[in-house]
Amino acid sequence: MIPTAAGLLSHHPGLQLELIGDARNFNLTRREADMALRLARPADMANSKVVARRIATLNYAIYVAAGKRDQAERLPWLVYEDGMMHLPHARWIAAQVEKSGEGSALAVNDAEALLQAAIAGLGRALLPVILVERVDGLCRVDIDDKTLPVREVWLLTHAELRHLARIRAVAEWLDRVFHIPQSKKG
């Protein structure tokens, strides 16, 4: 999202964009945030104070450092630390490590760290395709596995705020961010 934020902010002077990456779910009904992105369908869809809509689907792929594609099968998996095992993509990687019978090279707690570790050549990583599209230094490893994770991206907005110009502007920007054409990089 950050690489495209300049366009949003230049078109909407005075808008203050606050992007907070946090594992906890902010409570919109208590106004902890005006808007939120979630990587799963919200559990309480009956809450009339919050409007939720699916804005995208995150596809995942396996990536290795550029120049290491031929070695991909021999590279160790880069994994999420145990506290992240509630996430489908973290469980998918853990299952691959278990199948291989080998250990992992590195455990992290966020996708950015996983991305940087893959670029550094520390192993292979499962990453959201949209995250890698604007990054140099990685190549995609195509595998014949229909079980690669797919995550829904949901935009939540406080119902009373959804018609405000600033909220609409950010919602439209997020729609554009998540619908940037995704090529098969690598």
Task: Please give a structural write-up.
This protein is α+β, with helices and mostly antiparallel strands and about 190 residues long. The chain has a domain at about 60-140: Periplasmic binding protein-like II (D-Maltodextrin-Binding Protein, domain 2, 3-Layer(aba) Sandwich). It has five helices and seven strands, in the order αβββαβαβαββα. It has helices at about 1-10, 90-100, 110-120, 130, 165-180; strands at about 35-40, 50-65, 80, 105-110, 125-130, 140, 150-160. The strands form two sheets. Strands 1, 2, 5, 6 and 7 form a five-stranded antiparallel beta sheet that branches. A two-stranded parallel ribbon has the order 3-4.
What's the gist of this structure?
This protein has 186 residues and is of the alpha+beta class. The protein is built from five helices and seven strands, in the order H-E-E-E-H-E-H-E-H-E-E-H.
Short key terms for the protein model shown above:
186 residues; alpha+beta; D-Maltodextrin-Binding Protein, domain 2; 5-stranded antiparallel beta sheet; disordered C terminus
